[in-house]
Amino acid sequence: MSWLKEVIGTEKAIIAMLHMQPMPGDPYFDKAKGMKWVIEKAREDLDALQEGGVDAIMFSNEYSLPYLTDVKKETVAAMARVIGELQPEIRIPYGVNVLWDPKASLDLAAATDAKFIREIFTGVYASDFGIWDTNCGETVRHQRAIGAENVKLLFNIVPEAAAYLAARDIKQIAKSTVFNCRPDALCVSGLTAGSATDAGILDEVKKTVPDTVVLANTGCRIDTIEKLLQIADGAVVGTTFKYDGKFENQVDRTRVKAFMDVVKKTRS
């Protein structure tokens, strides 16, 4: 049995993304509407996801485009406010994802009692955001220093909008990451949010590290989730839950419920 059962309550877990609107410091923050509007939009998505039956939620600053790899303090503060105001209404386990800064994600998790974070912890990449470097050893030491050792670390090993500077086989990456860094889960992604996870790559990763939780991380749809869950231990789902399946839209409760009905049938 994996930690998913203990922390989230089920194997083959579906972690739903809750994409926060642009916040103070973000280029597209709506100053006229302010933080109250950001909180209200997050509340609407939270209600839709919970009523639709997802297993867990991951709060993310998905609309802080273009992303930073050294996130500013105002972003973490704003995210903490949103989660803090919504906390009395949260009925299921949740995690956080401060794009793309693992230390900031840990800080937010520690402040909000989040159960897990997802980040790029390892590797050096050529990305849309420039040269993208990481320091997993430093990050894990920071995790221990702030008392967040119980926060599960979900390693995205196929970064969105980025590629390894040196050509590396995905099986080598999975094997060395598990040996060197002891991730709680490996996340296998497509090119961007909403882009399909390659089932072949997902299968290669799972077979290479069968004792590690492996999650399908992007592009899971109602017509593909059954096949993906035959391979993966669970999935992180965002875009397909939104009205018309579009990244920029809010969550559609009807789409969530229909998707989760398929998931529950697959589990049974």
From TrEMBL:
It comes from the Bacteria. This is BtpA/SgcQ family protein. Belongs to the BtpA family. It comes from Suilimivivens aceti.
